[in-house]
Amino acid sequence: AQKITQTQPGMFVQEKEAVTLDCTYDTSDPSYGLFWYKQPSSGEMIFLIYQGSYDQQNATEGRYSLNFQKARKSANLVISASQLGDSAMYFCAMREPNSGGYQKVTFGIGTKLQVIP
Amino acid sequence: NAGVTQTPKFQVLKTGQSMTLQCAQDMNHNSMYWYRQDPGMGLRLIYYSASEGTTDKGEVPNGYNVSRLNKREFSLRLESAAPSQTSVYFCASSGSGLPPGELFFGEGSRLTVL
């Protein structure tokens, strides 16, 4: 079973509009974390936002917010006031404890966002 | 701030050739990772090293070997390259800072096997 599911291969959004990128996850561990990373066409991976499983409030970082619905196991990324520079691939990822003594991080397949002028 | 540095950035190999991807981090992180990125498949973990002196297999280890040379360096070796190993490879590291498990990535290495 997939640990991280991103069902939107591609999304379009008008500049200055808000957009939601979907992410659902699967884990039985009570302690986990959820990340969103951005990958522009230049290829580097950029950390955007983090939500811990015990965090009561939804995480926010500037124009990025994470809509965390624990019971539904969803962690959608909301980008407000889209900019042309937001055009990129977006990956949802989950950290969970691993018996190997490290924090295992699993990625979804990504969503390609294109911002239209 | 160098962060995570990986070399080479681009490489073309013929089937059967060997090569080593080098990775070094200067953030004093304990854990290091190698991922591969393929279209439609996201990033998949090849090998990881939870700490100096330890390595373990990830999701797709076949055809690869790794060495954690010291705390800073973690190399990935392809002994006999195959076209299926054409991919973009990312090295990453993580430490004890916040948020827990945040990965710091290198710029990626694009490998083509002919």
Short description:
The complex is a heterodimer of chains A (117) and B (114). Chain A is built from no helices and 12 strands.
- Helices and strands of chain A, in order, run as EEEEEEEEEEEE
What kind of sheet is the major sheet of chain A? 6 strands, mixed
The biggest beta sheet of chain B reads:
7 strands, mixed
Percent in strands of chain A: over 45%
Give a description of the structure.
Chain A has 117 residues and is mostly beta strands. Helices cover 0% and strands 52% of the residues of chain A. Chain A has no helices and 12 strands. Chain A has strands at residues 4-5, 10-14, 19-21, 24-25, 33-39, 46-52, 60-61, 64-69, 74-79, 88-97, 103-107, 111-116. Chain A is globular, with a radius of gyration of 14 Å. Chain A starts with a strand and ends with a strand. The model of chain A has no long low-confidence stretch (mean pLDDT 93). Chain B has strands at 4-7, 10-13, 19-25, 31-38, 42-49, 56-57, 64-68, 74-78, 87-94, 104-105, 109-113. In chain B, β7 (64-68) and β8 form a beta hairpin. Chain B has 114 residues and is mainly beta. Helix content of chain B is 0%, strand content 51%. Chain B contains no helices and 11 strands. In chain B, the strands form 2 sheets. In chain B, strands 2, 4, 5, 6, 9, 10 and 11 form a 7-stranded mixed β-sheet that branches. Chain B has a 4-stranded antiparallel β-sheet with strand order 1-3-8-7, with no helix packed on it. Classes of the chains: A mainly beta (117), B mainly beta (114).
